[in-house]
UniProtKB/TrEMBL annotation:
Chief site of localization: membrane
Membrane topology, record value: Multi-pass membrane protein
Organism: Limosilactobacillus vaginalis DSM 5837 = ATCC 49540
Keyword set, alphabetical order: Cell membrane, Membrane, Transmembrane, Transmembrane helix, Transport
UniProt similarity note: Belongs to the AzlC family.
Protein name: Putative azaleucine resistance protein AzlC
Length: 231
């Protein structure tokens, strides 16, 4: 028990930066759900089960529109696809995690990956237990923030204007940052053009599906071309 307590305290210290970030973002998410008309237990339950960050914002918005399960599935896959790349680097570290492996996989967010991957655990402590505690704590921070946002919004009837633009603003900022870091803007420009063409061709109901399929095809083509050294 003493050893476990030491590992918990070690994990708690390492996860402190995530605490402030996740609780703050979770508060915004909970308030956003409240502004959309949902009870506080909706964001809490979604944070517990989906635990997808930006995906939860997207799904919250889609719940008040004509619900299309296929669109939700594709968006979730696309938004979370990046995690499959750095998840591969954790296979060796999580190999002997036993039953904890499933929890570690479920809780592998960007921030949790960084901490678990780069933290050097003291020899007297269990790497698996420290990683598990960090994962569980980070998950708890997000759920706590989502609950507080929804609960406080319900109790005080808070209506914060502009929260419906949060995800749009976030994606714009991320897109601009990515655009500025690119050596070539072919993918970004073609992505915008493909989206506009798809919208005009098939309408707003199915344009997202068509756009995602075309973008995957483009990515495959550019990757193959780069591998052959044609760039």
């Amino acid at each position: 028990m003493k050893k476990l307590d030491g590992e918990f305290r070690f994990a708690l210290g390492k996860s402190m930066p995530v605490l402030f970030g996740y609780v703050t973002l979770g508060l915004g998410y909970g308030l956003y759900m409240h502004n959309l008309g949902f009870s506080f237990w909706y964001p809490t339950l979604m944070a517990l089960t989906i635990y997808g960050g930006s995906v939860e914002f997207v799904i919250a918005n889609m719940l008040v529109q004509h619900f299309n399960p296929l669109n939700v599935l594709l968006i979730t896959l696309v938004v979370g696809f990046r995690q499959s790349f750095y998840a591969l680097s954790m296979l060796k570290q999580y190999r002997h995690a036993g039953w904890r492996k499933w929890l570690l996989i479920f809780g592998l967010t960007d921030e949790t990956f960084v901490i678990n991957h780069y933290t050097k655990v003291p020899q007297e402590m269990s790497q698996v237990k420290v990683n598990t505690w960090i994962t569980v704590l980070d998950w708890g921070y997000w759920v706590l923030g989502a609950f507080l946002g929804g609960f406080l919004g319900s109790v005080f009837q808070l209506q914060v204007k502009g929260l419906d633009f949060v995800m749009t603003a976030l994606f714009i900022v991320l897109a601009l940052d990515q655009f500025l870091q690119e050596k070539s803007h072919v993918s970004s420009i073609s992505g915008v053009l493909i989206t506009i063409i798809s919208l005009l061709a098939v309408g707003k109901t199915y344009f997202l599906i068509v756009t995602l399929l075309l973008l995957v095809a483009e990515y495959y083509y550019l990757t193959r071309r780069h591998a052959k050294g044609d760039d």
